[in-house]
């Protein structure tokens, strides 16, 4: 795959050799020509890239401290390097995320006997409503 941020152009030479069955003796039965080709890679806006493919967190049940449970991070792979804003897509999630830092917090007491594993989606979006990407995260209660 071509990636503008890694390399924005490629240059190479193409040589064409043509066998001539009925050619004059001065070119030795071969006609050839060369051309230099440059391909410019066009930059496109790409969605944020999460630093991990899976996010798993461990939580003690019955805790409701406003301590950081963990951090979810993404980056803008584009040269613009826009700031990323975070949100949790699940409407009744027992977790909250700091929109600027990606730090995850518990909103209410959790009971392991009611639900041992919580699965939720986190959206990372470029500032000002730019490109976005989601990642599934899990929290296991102990």
From TrEMBL:
Classification via CDD domains: Cadherin_repeat
Subcellular location: Cell junction; Cell membrane
Ranges where the Cadherin domain occurs: 2-50, 51-141
Pfam families cross-referenced by the UniProt entry: Cadherin (PF00028)
Domain of life the protein comes from: Eukaryota
UniProt keywords, alphabetically: Calcium, Cell junction, Cell membrane, Cleavage on pair of basic residues, Glycoprotein, Membrane, Metal-binding, Repeat, Signal
SUPFAM superfamilies to which the protein is assigned, alphabetical: Cadherin-like (SSF49313)
InterPro entries: Cadherin, Cadherin-like_dom, Cadherin-like_sf
Entry's transmembrane regions: none
Cross-referenced PANTHER family: CADHERIN-23, CADHERIN-5
Protein name according to UniProt: Cadherin domain-containing protein
């Amino acid at each position: 795959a071509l990636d503008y941020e890694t390399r924005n152009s490629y240059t190479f030479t193409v040589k064409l050799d043509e066998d001539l069955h009925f050619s004059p003796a001065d070119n030795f039965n071969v006609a050839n020509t060369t051309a230099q080709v440059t391909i410019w890679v066009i930059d496109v806006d790409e969605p944020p890239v999460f630093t991990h493919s899976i996010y798993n967190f461990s939580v003690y049940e019955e805790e409701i401290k406003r301590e950081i449970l963990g951090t979810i991070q993404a980056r803008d792979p584009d040269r613009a390097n826009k700031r990323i804003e975070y949100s949790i897509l699940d409407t009744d999630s027992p977790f909250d995320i700091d929109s600027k830092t990606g730090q995850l917090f518990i909103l209410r007491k959790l009971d392991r006997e009611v639900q041992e594993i919580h699965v939720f989606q986190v959206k990372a979006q470029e500032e000002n409503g730019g490109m976005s990407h989601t990642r599934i995260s899990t929290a296991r209660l102990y």
